[in-house]
Specification:
Blueprint: H1 18-49, H2 54-80, H3 82-90, H4 94-121, H5 123-130, H6 134-147, H7 151-166, H8 170-177, H9 183-195, H10 198-221, H11 224-228
Length: about 230
C-alpha cells in the first residue's frame, strides 16, 4: 500500500470535493427519478383501467413488457452516445458536437419508427409469448399499437435527456425525468380518461410522449442550441 509513490489505496487519501459531490447528485438524481416515474406511470395506468375489468389490466401489464423492449433498445443507443456528447461539449468542439447530435436524433428517431412498425405488425404473436388467452391477446393488440404511437417522441426525449446529463444541465434533465411518465402523463391521463374514456386512457401515453418531446425541444433550443450558435 505504501510502496508506490504514484498510486495509493489508502482510505485516508480518499477525498471528494463538495462541488464534485453536488454535481454527481445533480446528474444522478434525474436518472433515478426516471425509473421511479416508470413505476408511477404503470400504477396510474392500471388504476385507470380497473373500472373496465381485470382482463384489460392484465393485458396492459403484458403490453408494458412488450413496449419496454422497444424503449430499452432506444435507451441503450441513446446512452451509448453519452460519452461522445460529454467529451465534445466539454472540449467546446461545437462542429463535432452538432454532427453527433444530428446523427443521434436521426438514428434514434429512425430506430423508433422501425420498432413501431415491426412491433405493431407482430403485436399478436408478441403478446402470445406472454399469454395464450385469446381474450387477453385481442384486448392487447390495440393497446400495444396505441402505446407504440409515441415511440419516435420517446427517442427525441431520450437523446435530449442524455445531452443535458452529459452537459451537466441538471435542471433540464430533471424536468424531462419527471414529465413523460410523471407530471405530464398524470395530467394527460386524468383529462383523457374523463373526456374520451377507455380510448383516452390507451392514448394517454402517446400524447404524453408527444408533449414531453415538445418540452425537450424547447429546453434544447434555449440551452444547448443557444450555446452552439453563439
Amino acid at each position: 500500500m505504501n510502496r508506490s509513490k504514484r498510486l495509493s489505496v489508502n482510505p485516508a487519501n480518499f477525498y471528494i470535493h463538495k462541488d464534485e459531490l453536488i454535481q454527481i447528485f445533480a446528474i444522478g438524481i434525474p436518472a433515478s427519478i426516471t425509473n421511479l416515474m416508470q413505476s408511477l406511470g404503470m400504477t396510474l395506468m392500471n388504476r385507470s383501467l380497473l373500472p373496465y375489468g381485470n382482463d384489460r389490466v392484465a393485458a396492459m401489464g403484458i403490453i408494458m413488457k412488450v413496449n419496454m423492449i422497444a424503449v430499452l433498445i432506444l435507451v441503450g443507443f441513446a446512452f451509448g452516445g453519452q460519452p461522445l456528447i460529454g467529451y465534445n461539449y466539454g472540449a467546446k468542439n461545437r462542429r463535432r458536437l452538432e454532427e453527433i447530435l444530428s446523427f443521434a436524433y436521426k438514428f434514434e428517431c429512425g430506430l423508433g419508427l422501425l420498432l413501431t412498425i415491426l412491433l405493431s405488425l407482430a403485436a399478436r404473436p408478441m403478446i402470445r409469448i406472454f399469454m395464450k388467452d385469446n381474450t387477453i391477446v385481442s384486448l392487447g393488440v390495440p393497446m400495444l399499437r396505441m402505446q407504440l404511437l409515441g415511440m419516435v417522441f420517446v427517442a427525441i426525449v431520450l437523446v435530449t435527456t442524455c445531452t443535458f446529463q452529459s452537459a451537466g444541465m441538471a435542471r433540464n434533465a430533471f424536468l424531462l425525468s419527471i414529465s413523460r411518465q410523471g407530471v405530464i402523463f398524470a395530467i394527460v391521463l386524468a383529462i383523457a380518461s374523463h373526456t374520451i374514456g377507455y380510448q383516452g386512457i390507451l392514448l394517454s401515453q402517446a400524447i404524453s410522449d408527444l408533449l414531453t418531446a415538445v418540452l425537450a425541444i424547447a429546453l434544447y433550443r434555449t440551452s444547448v442550441a443557444k450555446e452552439l450558435h453563439t
